[in-house]
Design a protein that fits this description.
The protein is an alpha/beta fold. It contains 19 helices and nine strands. It has helices at 13-16, 27-38, 54-59, 67-73, 83-94, 110-113, 134-142, 161-171, 174-177, 184-199, 201-216, 221-230, 232-250, 253-266, 269-283, 286-296, 300-310, 313-323, 335-339; strands at 4-5, 19-23, 42-47, 63-66, 76-79, 103-106, 124-130, 149-155, 179-181. The chain has a nine-stranded mixed sheet with strand order 1-9-8-7-6-5-2-3-4. Helix 3 links the parallel strand 3 (42-47) and strand 4 (63-66). Helix 4 crosses helix 5, helix 10 (184-199) packs parallel to helix 11 (201-216) and helix 11 packs antiparallel against helix 12. The protein is globular and about 65 Å long. The chain starts with a strand and ends with a helix.
Length: 343
């Protein structure tokens, strides 16, 4: 069983005496910086020269500096830039400004797990990874709650790295919900697997394929949209609140019987074999190498696939139908709008 920690298990004073640099003011960056500030932590935001996020951060009452200056002024550095840009920024602006006994924090283990960043031996290397997008980390904090966090210690130069990671998680609200101890390897590999097989890749491909199948069989696209995409939220919400068993209790017997008897035919042995391949590609580093090379070479394949997704017929049908349901987006701001970008 996992080790789970709450406020009673945390000594907030461990971070109260430290100076934190949050590098990046995107979805996670803005949430970490603001939550830390309102928890009484000495925090500054490090941004690239000319960053469009600088004004947003200053308007929020945060101190803003160049990445190099923010690192030099701090002794806890949270790396919240995109995975594919982090190593270059680390080498240029972070590593030359590190001091012995500093701590480098990450919210995802990608760059450490795949040896893209190799910190010196005299610093702590920790992870604090909220299990939710930045706007949720921020909103729950302002409401007096928090989002569960994962913590991990890759390198404990000080002998107190775990206590520092717990204190950081607490300062952004995580200890109210629960902080689970893991490792950089476990977090990275399970995170990538979940994204690729279920949360993003598996789900979007299944929705698109099912929509295509119904439309090609002669059913109205609008009806296919509702059945294959729109109602997915209702089922996921039930699973989120009560688990799979709770969802099955809430749906009709007909739906549950179809779930129990037909679901395993969709996730067949061949699908499970493909899951094995995907997990192996994550574990052996080939996915990381592929993605970093794709990004560094201009993202031609990525952009082509992204454009094809935007042009899928389900997007046009969905756009029209969502316009008939203004309550879906009423009062909401997109995650990208809230993030202030990735820099």
């Amino acid at each position: 069983m996992a080790n789970i920690y709450y406020e009673k298990d945390v000594d907030r004073s461990v971070i109260a005496s430290r100076k934190v640099a949050v590098l990046g003011y995107g979805s996670q960056g803005h949430a970490h910086a603001l939550n830390l500030k309102e928890s009484g932590i000495d925090v500054r935001v490090g941004l690239r020269d000319g960053s469009s996020s600088a004004e947003k951060a200053r308007n929020a009452g945060l101190e803003v500096a160049s990445i190099a200056d923010a690192v030099a002024a701090a002794d806890v550095i949270m790396m919240l830039m995109p995975d594919t840009e982090m190593a270059e920024i680390y080498e240029r602006d972070v590593e030359p400004n590190l001091q012995a006994n500093d701590a480098i924090f990450f919210a995802h283990g990608f760059n450490i797990r795949f040896d893209l960043i190799s910190p010196p031996d005299n610093v702590d290397v920790c992870m604090v990874a909220p299990k939710g997008p930045g706007h949720l980390v921020r909103r729950t904090y302002t409401e007096g709650g928090g989002v569960p966090c994962l913590i991990a210690v890759e390198q404990d130069a000080s002998g107190a790295a775990k206590a520092l990671a717990l204190a950081y998680a607490d300062a952004i609200g995580g200890a109210l919900a629960g902080v689970i101890e893991t490792t950089f390897t476990e977090e990275t590999e399970t995170d990538l697997f979940g994204e690729q097989v279920v949360l993003c890749g598996g789900t979007t491909s299944l929705v698109q394929a099912a929509f295509e199948k119904l439309v090609n069989a002669g059913y109205q696209p609008e009806v296919a949209y509702f059945e294959c995409l729109h109602e997915l939220k209702l089922i996921v919400d039930l699973m989120y609140e009560e688990g799979i068993a709770g969802m099955r209790y809430s749906v009709s017997d007909t739906a549950e019987y179809g779930d129990l008897t037909r679901g395993p035919r969709i996730v067949s042995d061949s699908v499970k074999a493909e899951m094995d391949k995907i997990l192996s590609e994550i574990q052996d580093g080939s996915f990381a190498k592929e993605w970093v090379n794709e990004s560094r070479s201009g993202r031609e394949n990525f952009l082509a696939l992204e454009a094809a997704g935007h042009d899928h017929p389900i997007e046009e049908v969905g756009k029209k139908l969502r316009a008939m349901m203004p309550w879906i987006s009423a009062g909401k701001t997109s995650v990208k709008d809230m993030s202030g970008g990735q820099n």
